[in-house]
């Protein structure tokens, strides 16, 4: 895994960094284990003025990859989808994920899209459980773009000095954001 991680980072030092970022974001949303954040951070730190451009590339790749994952679950669950879920050790949680969809609908995808939870598991199961495609796409676009634009914004404003902070506290920062997001939904539900 460390070798794979190093290989992903090596793309930041090539003229194909943006293409690699798009492909990494696409594949991570449907089956690949390395999150695109590592390459997004490396590219953004190498040219901070392009941070937001890299976030757009990452967001589009991730959304399209999530849609691909959705269709894997929708049409190929028995042949491919279950294999991917087994690879990430989520087969025992399959029914629990189905419960999350029943309870929270596509918002379960939104939480997975922003957090360290393997997003690909939720894109595939969203298709398998026939979550509304348009709602799935909208929530995926919002959650993934929020995640990548926050990283890009921090690097744009703080540059190289913030890299160690992001590397060390990314999981904690995403958990805090999810708590704020859930609190916002609870408040909206109470008042609407």
What does this structure look like?
By secondary structure, the protein is mostly helical. Helices cover 79% and strands 0% of the residues. It is built from 9 helices and no strands. α6 (107-114) runs parallel beside α8 (133-158). The model has no long low-confidence stretch (mean pLDDT 81).
Structural class: mainly alpha
Radius of gyration: 16 Å
Q: Number of helix segments? A: 9
Ranges with pLDDT <50 over ≥5 residues? Answer: none
Q: State the end-to-end distance.
A: 46 Å
Helix content: over 70%
List SSEs in N-to-C order: HHHHHHHHH
Based on DSSP secondary structure assignment, what is the total number of beta strands?
0
Question: What is the makeup of the main sheet?
Answer: none
Q: How would the global form be characterised? A: globular
The number of distinct structural domains comes to 1
The residue-averaged pLDDT reads 81
Task: Give the DSSP E fraction (strand runs of 2 or more residues).
Answer: under 5%
What is the topology?
Layout: H1 2-10, H2 17-28, H3 37-46, H4 51-87, H5 94-104, H6 107-114, H7 119-128, H8 133-158, H9 163-191
């Amino acid at each position: 895994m460390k070798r794979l991680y190093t290989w992903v980072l090596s793309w930041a030092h090539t003229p194909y960094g943006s293409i690699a970022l798009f492909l990494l974001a696409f594949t991570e949303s449907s089956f690949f284990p390395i999150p695109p954040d590592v390459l997004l951070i490396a590219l953004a730190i190498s040219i901070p003025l392009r941070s937001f451009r890299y976030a757009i590339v990452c967001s589009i790749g991730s959304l399209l990859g999530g849609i691909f994952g959705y269709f894997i679950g929708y049409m190929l669950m028995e042949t491919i989808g279950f294999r991917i879920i087994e690879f990430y050790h989520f087969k025992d949680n399959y029914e629990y994920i189905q419960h999350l969809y029943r309870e929270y609908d596509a918002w379960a995808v939104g939480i997975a899209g922003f957090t360290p939870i393997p997003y690909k598991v939720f894109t595939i199961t969203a298709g398998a459980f026939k979550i509304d495609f348009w709602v799935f796409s909208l929530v995926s676009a919002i959650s993934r773009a929020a995640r990548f634009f926050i990283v890009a914004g921090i690097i744009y404003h703080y540059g190289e000095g913030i890299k160690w902070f992001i590397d060390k506290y990314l999981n904690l920062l995403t958990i805090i954001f999810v708590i704020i997001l859930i609190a916002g939904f609870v408040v909206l539900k109470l008042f609407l």
